[in-house]
Amino acid sequence: MSENMSRSQLLRGASAGLAGMAAASLMGSPPAQAQTAAPEHPNVRLIREYYKAYASGDPNALKRFFAADIRWTIPGHHPLSGTKYGQAEVLAFFRELARAGFRAEPISLAADGAWVIDLHRGWSTTPEGLDIMWALAFRIRNGKIAEAINFAGDQHAADTFFWKHYALAPLPDRLAAR
């Protein structure tokens, strides 16, 4: 099944195709050509390419997808949560995710104007322990991700995992220098 075709679209298309073939055979004419799928929205294509780069395991491969002033919000109450500003902070976040071998399997992508909504399975591999559904809202500007807002399917499980595997440094090293 095509990634951009839902199960119901596939079933409707198959039913219509079978009915058309049956009618054509009764009338003695060849079946009509199959309808072509609508072209993929460019912002959905961008996010699909972003996930391919993410799957490479190299956080630096993601930089080309990010606007210079990107804002990425991570929900929760754990050491990695909060809003990251700019490419350097967002890439630092992804380097931390890479330490835990995070993977993502996109399930659905939909675009409406400048926004792409993504539903995906996200899980850790090193160590194993977090495997939940996530939704992201991506705002696209000039062909780049300008903003992303994460939504965890199980925020409690995410908080517990991140606290367990991303300890804060002891004081006074934990605090930023002024």
UniProtKB/TrEMBL annotation:
<dbReference type="InterPro" id="IPR037401">
    <property type="entry name" value="SnoaL-like"/>
</dbReference>
<dbReference type="Pfam" id="PF12680">
    <property type="entry name" value="SnoaL_2"/>
</dbReference>
<keyword id="KW-0732">Signal</keyword>
<dbReference type="InterPro" id="IPR032710">
    <property type="entry name" value="NTF2-like_dom_sf"/>
</dbReference>
<feature type="signal peptide">
    <location>
        <begin position="1"/>
        <end position="34"/>
    </location>
</feature>
<protein>
    <recommendedName>
        <fullName>SnoaL-like domain-containing protein</fullName>
    </recommendedName>
</protein>
<feature type="domain" description="SnoaL-like">
    <location>
        <begin position="47"/>
        <end position="147"/>
    </location>
</feature>
<dbReference type="InterPro" id="IPR006311">
    <property type="entry name" value="TAT_signal"/>
</dbReference>
